[in-house]
């Protein structure tokens, strides 16, 4: 696959050079060809994952589904200033789900609080007490709050292991928005027991409960397209699989032996505590000979996603910093080659937009640097007239790049229709329309997200923190001033780009509109993306027929008097002071 | 509307994490130095290359 991606990139590189040579090769052609090489390789890698995913099938381990469970497991939910009513009601739902299918006695739950806000911490304790009462969970449910959140989430898990790790064979690591079916948790434990060398088992969480246009597009994409890409990833990575930080189970002793993370030398963003600790922990487990595996056949694993593009960009900002920090770790001793490649992939995911933007910028500025050939000899005619030999090459290049972008999703759609999988997503017609709608939306949001990513990378390289406008509304709706405050600079960048193209390379103006117009419309895209979606497209199986744990979650929220939409408790949770828990 | 919740029969001590410590040794996750530093370090001021291991041991 790496070779195929390299070949695709080299093919694009050579085509672009030959295309430039037809009118006299200049240094700017070579520069753009190198940018095309890198960008195409990255695109091809994603497409290859999809092709492998489309042509392979997950094989669940045989004979382990009903095996008796011997080891004790703790389900860990690290929380940090989260809405405790929501987070803990998820724990209550998972416990109820486990109770429905068997005896959960050997499965404990620990709320590992790193909450800094005392008021939220008081709510956490109140919600915890309600949960313990509700689930009759004394002796199985635990709560602790750290005085200092050293090492953030990785430090929080580490603190648990160093305090209580010896009491458990396995730990299911969650995020505050994770939700897992009891049956899925039991399957994960059984798979760990069946494979003693298995250090970590990752599931593929599907996004649920999205309500906005942007959120539902992400939800559909995660449910419809991601499983194929994940299948490809599972095939390619094999025993050196990924860890995404949550909705996974670890062998506690393997984790303790391998994953003690020191602080990196120097100050953040490249020094300090390891931000994206999950990739590093996966690499360290593999280094110590443990298997890290993605079992993408496991259903019943859920999470929630950002409801608007600003929250999406904020999350990407953290991930960007974390992934760029991995540049410090790529050379760590004795890592498996594949682990190093995963770090490279993570870095590429964030710097790739710089290459695309560099290509566009170089194309606009080319006339300032060299004398350009005239591809548009007919005034007012928008389609280029390349020399005969160059025209076919340029068209091949364009088709190739668009193919790598769109073909995987179109193939996934086709397979879903042929295999009958489309029924789970509302039927064939709806799947076709949803796919086309998703392609359109992702094409519109891509330039905006690309700009946010470029800003994130530049901020990290300049060792600066982001200055994102905050969005405190529970429903995630961005008001116009918030949308404008978050994206005015994108409008400026888009306007400068289009203005420069109009004067320097007017023949490219129309071709740059798909990038420039979404940038100019970015406040509208941000605002519209955050609004509630009432359309009948982008339907997912979890929306059509919610799994048992989702139903239980809704029931717990209702029982606790929490409004599921706003997450605000209808009735404040109050407790007599004498029952207070110490933080 | 639900009545305000009041806890009963709740024991604070029972909800503290079990004391069962497990050692978690710190791992080496950074190369000693980057490739450029390593190369420069191997070059003595006189231009001689320093061996990468103690051959006299």
Structure description:
The complex is a heterodimer of chains A (about 575) and B (about 55). Chain A has about 575 residues and is of the alpha/beta class. Helices cover about 55% and strands about 5% of the residues of chain A. Chain A has helices at about 1-20, 25-55, 85-100, 120-135, 150-165, 180-195, 215-225, 225-235, 250-260, 275-285, 310-325, 335-370, 390-420, 430-460, 480-505, 505-520, 520-530, 540-545, 550-560; strands spanning about 75-80, 105-115, 140-145, 170-175, 180, 200, 205, 250, 290-295, 300-305. In chain A, helix 3 links the parallel strand 1 (about 75-80) and strand 2 (about 105-115). In chain A, about 50% of the residues are buried. Chain B has about 55 residues and is low in regular secondary structure. Chain B is about 15% helix and about 0% strand. Chain B is rod-shaped and about 65 Å long. In chain B, about 5% of the residues are buried.
Q: What's the pLDDT, averaged over the residues of chain B?
A: 64
Could you say which overall geometry of chain B the principal axes of the C-alpha atoms support? rod-shaped
Alpha carbon gyration radius of chain B: 29 Å
| pLDDT < 50 runs, ≥5 residues of chain B | 1-9, 47-57
> What structural class do you assign from the helix and strand content of chain A?
alpha/beta
Number of strands of chain B: 0
Please give the oligomerization state of what you see. Answer: heterodimer
Q: Beta-strand level of the residues of chain B, as a percent range? A: under 5%
Low-confidence segments of chain A, ≥5 residues, pLDDT <50? 467-473, 566-583
Using only C-alpha atoms, the radius of gyration of chain A works out to 25 Å
**Secondary-structure class of chain B:** little secondary structure
Indicate the mean pLDDT of chain A. 88
Largest interface: A-B, 55 and 32 residues
């Amino acid at each position: 696959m790496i070779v195929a991606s390299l070949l695709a990139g080299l093919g694009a590189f050579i085509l672009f050079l030959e295309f430039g040579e037809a009118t006299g090769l200049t240094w700017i052609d070579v520069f753009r060809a190198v940018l095309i090489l890198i960008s195409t390789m990255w695109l091809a890698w994603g497409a290859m994952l999809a092709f492998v995913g489309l042509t392979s099938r997950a094989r669940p381990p045989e004979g382990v589904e009903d095996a008796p469970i011997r080891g004790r497991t703790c389900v860990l939910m690290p929380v940090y200033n989260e809405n405790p009513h929501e987070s803990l009601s998820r724990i209550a739902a998972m416990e109820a789900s486990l109770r429905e299918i068997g005896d959960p006695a050997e499965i404990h739950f620990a709320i590992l609080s790193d909450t800094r806000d005392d008021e939220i911490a008081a709510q956490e304790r109140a919600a915890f007490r309600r949960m313990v009462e509700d689930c009759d969970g004394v002796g199985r449910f635990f709560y602790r709050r750290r005085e200092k959140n050293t090492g953030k989430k990785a430090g929080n898990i580490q603190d648990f292991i160093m305090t209580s790790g010896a009491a458990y064979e396995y730990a299911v690591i969650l995020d505050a928005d994770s939700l897992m079916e009891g049956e899925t948790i039991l399957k994960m434990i059984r798979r760990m027991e069946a494979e003693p060398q298995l250090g970590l088992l990752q599931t593929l969480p599907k996004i649920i409960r999205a309500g906005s246009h942007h959120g539902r597009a992400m939800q559909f994409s995660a449910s419809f397209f991601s499983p194929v890409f994940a299948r490809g990833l599972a095939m390619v990575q094999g025993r050196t699989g990924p860890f995404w930080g949550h909705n996974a189970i670890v062998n506690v002793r393997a984790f303790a032996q391998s994953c003690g993370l020191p602080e990196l030398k120097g100050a953040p963003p490249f020094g300090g505590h390891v931000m994206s600790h999950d990739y590093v922990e996966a690499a360290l487990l593999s280094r110590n000979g443990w298997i890290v595996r993605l079992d993408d056949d496991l259903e019943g694993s859920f999470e929630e996603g950002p409801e608007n593009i600003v929250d999406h960009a904020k999350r990407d900002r953290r991930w960007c910093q974390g992934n760029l920090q991995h540049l410090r770790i790529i050379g760590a001793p004795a890592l498996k080659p594949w682990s190093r490649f995963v770090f490279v992939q993570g870095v590429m995911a964030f710097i790739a937009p710089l290459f695309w933007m560099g290509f566009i910028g170089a194309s606009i500025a080319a006339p300032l640097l060299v004398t350009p050939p005239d591809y548009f000899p007919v005034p007012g005619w928008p389609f280029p007239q390349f020399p005969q030999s160059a025209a076919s090459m340029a068209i091949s290049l364009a088709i190739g790049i668009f193919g790598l972008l769109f073909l995987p999703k179109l193939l996934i759609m086709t397979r879903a229709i042929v295999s009958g999988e489309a029924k789970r997503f509302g039927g064939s017609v709806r799947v076709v329309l949803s796919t086309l709608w998703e392609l359109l939306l992702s094409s519109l949001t891509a330039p905006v997200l690309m700009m946010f990513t470029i800003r994130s990378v530049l901020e990290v390289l300049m060792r600066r923190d982001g200055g994102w406008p905050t969005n405190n509304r529970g429903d995630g709706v961005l008001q116009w001033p918030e949308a404008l405050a978050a994206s005015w600079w994108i409008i400026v960048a888009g306007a400068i780009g289009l203005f420069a193209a109009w004067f320097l390379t007017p023949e490219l103006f129309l071709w740059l509109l798909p990038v420039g117009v979404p940038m100019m419309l970015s406040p509208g895209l941000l605002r519209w993306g955050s609004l509630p979606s009432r359309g009948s497209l982008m339907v997912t199986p979890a929306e059509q027929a919610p799994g048992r744990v989702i139903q239980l979650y809704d029931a717990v929220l209702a029982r606790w008097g929490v409004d599921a939409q706003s997450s605000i408790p209808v009735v404040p949770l109050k407790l007599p002071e004498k029952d207070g828990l110490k933080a | 509307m639900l009545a305000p919740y009041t806890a009963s029969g709740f024991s604070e001590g029972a909800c503290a994490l079990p004391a069962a410590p497990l050692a978690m040794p710190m791992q080496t996750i950074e190369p000693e130095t980057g490739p450029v530093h390593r190369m420069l370090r191997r070059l003595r001021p006189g231009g001689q290359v320093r061996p990468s291991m103690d051959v006299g041991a």
